[in-house]
Amino acid sequence: MLEKINIKEIGGKTFRITCYEPFENAILTHYLHNYHNGVSKYYKKDATVILKSYFKYKKDVEKVSFVKEDAIQRLLFEVENVPFPSPKKHTFKFIDLFAGVGGFRIAMQNVGGKCVFSSEWDENAQKTYRANFGETPFGDISLKETKNYIPKDFDVLCAGFPCQPFSIAGHQKGFSDTRGTLFFDIEQIVEKHKPKVIFLENVKNFVSHDKGRTFQVIKEILEEKLGYKIYTQVINSMTHANIPQNRERIFIVAFDPKQVKNYSDFKFPRKIKLKKSIKDILKDGEQDSSLFYPKGHPYYSELDKEMKSTETVYQWRRTYVRENKNNVCPTLTANMGTGGHNVPLIRDNENIRKLSPEECFRFQGYPKKFVLPKISKGQLYKQAGNSVTLPLVERISKEIMKVL
């Protein structure tokens, strides 16, 4: 790989390295995250090359007064001193594909899981992931060299695989769309590694796309070709996660019956009462002025006329205002905040404004300590809209763990 003279921070405090594209940060942070367990062997060879070049670079630019092991310990501190570190004790291992900003990862860590591999191609999502977990995900999972870094043994494969080909909002091309074929990368990984469990998420329309044929293809691959026993259910965040967002998603949980004898015990979580309101999610205090619509804005008069309640979230739908009659947030989308269509709006103290990126992440159930890096609001809105609802994924994860 050609050297790219681009100095990136390892953790933002102490160290900088010379970068080698495209895998250097992913290799090094994966190695450090698994430094104290056997998984590190999958990354050690290449990580050692990167570290050697790093130490050489440091010697070229400044006097180095610490020994290598001391430097490793400092690097370990950098990747472990993060909002959501890996659990010190874990009961199972998982991989995080199409990881986004890490919704699956937080949920699985909360039930005792150790992430041994992550992959996400979007560079801005990688920054958010890194800020919260101290790990840079590998990039394009469709590349052979990316798949080659997946450790041999893990228990659960998690993937919120790209939904654009199956979404009502998209063109619904399914497997004729290049992005739609990314499921077949999951198939290849499952066929090679045979995890005990496959845990997938996609849009509700995935079930009905192409008159159900797309979903049938997925089921046939999982059941007939790969030999898994599958469970599927469309679940709404506001009915199953105590999150006031009307968000329906299809979840697929598949067990390898050869490794999980009691797979038939699995059940999706039951409905729970929605106790939280939008007021529990919205931020108190002064808001960023850029979120507010000035009275001179071309949409303002229509918004002011239609937005009467302070108890719900509205949307601007290209030419009209839509109110959510359930007094919850409408489904957050990847294109919200990028102009016009699907922008979530509220009437806040007699003023009209967009939801902030922080509020959108709260409507996905992310904790307050979740870090949003300094990237554009448009990218943060996209990340929130593409994410899973964290408490819902955690509830399903608990049911999976009961079986394992």
- Sketch the topology as an H/E string, one letter per element: EEHHHEHEHHEHEHEHEHHEEEEHHH
Global Rg: 22 Å
Count of DSSP E strands? 12
Record the strand order, biggest sheet.
Answer: 4-3-5-6-8-7
- What is the helical fraction, as a range of percent? 25-40%
Report on this structure.
The radius of gyration is 22 Å and the shape is globular. The chain is built from 14 helices and twelve strands. The strands form three sheets. Strands 4-3-5-6-8-7 form a six-stranded mixed beta sheet, with helices on both faces. The protein has a four-stranded antiparallel beta sheet with strand order 10-9-11-12, covered by helices on one side. The longest helix is centred in the first third of the chain and has 21 residues. Among the domains are: 81 residues, no CATH class; 93 residues, no CATH class. The protein has 404 residues and is an alpha/beta fold. The two termini are 41 Å apart. The N terminus is likely disordered.
SSE topology:
Layout (H helix, E strand, L loop, with lengths): L2 E7 L6 E5 L3 H10 L7 H21 L6 H13 L11 E6 L5 H8 L2 E6 L4 H11 L10 H4 L8 E4 L23 H11 L3 E7 L9 H13 L3 E8 H4 L7 E8 L22 H4 L18 H7 L7 E3 L4 E3 L19 E6 L2 E4 L2 H6 L14 H10 L3 H14 L1
Parallel strand pairs: 3-4, 3-5, 5-6
Antiparallel strand pairs: 1-2, 6-8, 7-8, 9-10, 9-11, 11-12
Helix pairs in contact: 1-2, 4-14
